[in-house]
Amino acid sequence: MKKGVLFVNLGSPDSPEPKDVKKYLGEFLMDPRVIDIPLVARTALVKGIILNTRPKQSAKAYKKIWWEEGSPLIVLSERLQNKVQEKVKYPVALAMRYGSMTIKKGLQELVDKGVDEVFLIPLYPQFAMATTETILVLAEEIREANFPNLKIESLPAFYNNPEYIKVLAESIKKDLNGKTYDHLLFSYHGVPERHIRKSDVTNGHCKIDGSCCVTPSKAHEFCYRHQCKEVTRLVAEYLNLEDNTYSTSFQSRLGFDPWLQPYTDRTIERLGKSGIKNMAIVTPAFVSDCLETLEEIAMEGQEIFHEVGGEKFRTIPCLNTDQNWVNLLANWINNWANNTVEAS
């Protein structure tokens, strides 16, 4: 069998123009694993309300961070793909869950190269309904409909993989080397609380309280909240961070339902008001910088911090094409090809 690799990231509009943003948001928000309400209600919410107001606002945000080469997320993901390709002998393709760079196109590219066994790598450290799960479900649907003879295995969530934690922690350490900061905030993309409960394979462990995430349970294999908190704990442990010098928050909520807390914008505001003058923030739910990191955090977060008296606000880049991250991905691919890494 000929092996190949497919990286899958979130996606991006074709351009920062409202019409392209509207098309992209329509696909994204109509995903039942993103807005998980009945189809009729989801259609009314997305097409009847959100797509009549949000595209222009989102287009302005995309224009702030758009690069000459295109979408930062796409460009950075392509650079990662190319660097990893240099390290492995198997063809590496790239796809996005939403937008023009479809998973079907990515699989077709590999099949056209003679690949019949694919290692699918969702570019998310943590498992979530709206990220890893929707990628895996769609990839299987596409395989069944278009590539029935193709074998697909996937890389499980790697949030607690010691090698990943080392790479992430060392990248943070390198970025902050020689710089003074009072508080390090770990900000993760938010999800509705109901997503956590829906992903609970025990149907009862996840209470979203102060204890469930630190009480051992098989629910943790699919618990996004636990996995985010665990990344923070493990990195803090690796870097020997002192208590009260770091914390965890969640960004990018939508609508009025309760999402994971504490919220990043309110946390930044609270820290600034409490006297924190120098703040650093890292976004470990992403491996490539994107709208959420470049605009929502680096721009909006900094503005909030300065408004409440903060002075220095430093955004730590995602792993992007960090050489240690490239090497780690290449090692995982080679280990999979040699049947020495667990895949699902």
Keywords:
344 residues, alpha/beta, Rossmann fold, four-stranded parallel β-sheet, 11 helices, 8 strands, globular
Describe what you observe in this structure.
- The longest helix is centred in the N-terminal third of the chain and has 27 residues, at 39-65.
- The protein is 47% helix and 14% strand.
- It is built from eleven helices and eight strands.
- It is of the alpha/beta class.
- A four-stranded parallel beta sheet has the order 2-1-3-4, with helices on both faces. It has a four-stranded parallel beta sheet with strand order 6-5-7-8, with helices on both faces.
- Helix 10 links the parallel strand 7 (278-282) and strand 8.
- It has two domains: 3-158 and 323-337, Rossmann fold, CATH 3.40.50; 162-315, Rossmann fold.
Strands across the major sheet, in which order?
A: 2-1-3-4
Provide the CATH top-level class of the largest domain. Alpha Beta
Bin the strand percentage. Answer: 5-15%
Average pLDDT: 95
Count of the domains: 2
Radius of gyration: 20 Å
How would you concisely characterize the structure shown here?
The protein is 47% helix and 14% strand. The protein contains eleven helices and eight strands.
SSE topology:
Elements: E1 3-11, H1 18-29, H2 39-65, H3 72-85, E2 92-98, H4 103-112, E3 117-122, H5 129-146, E4 151-154, H6 162-176, E5 183-189, H7 193-198, H8 224-239, E6 246-251, H9 264-273, E7 278-282, H10 291-307, E8 312-315, H11 323-337
Parallel strand pairs: 1-2, 1-3, 3-4, 5-6, 5-7, 7-8
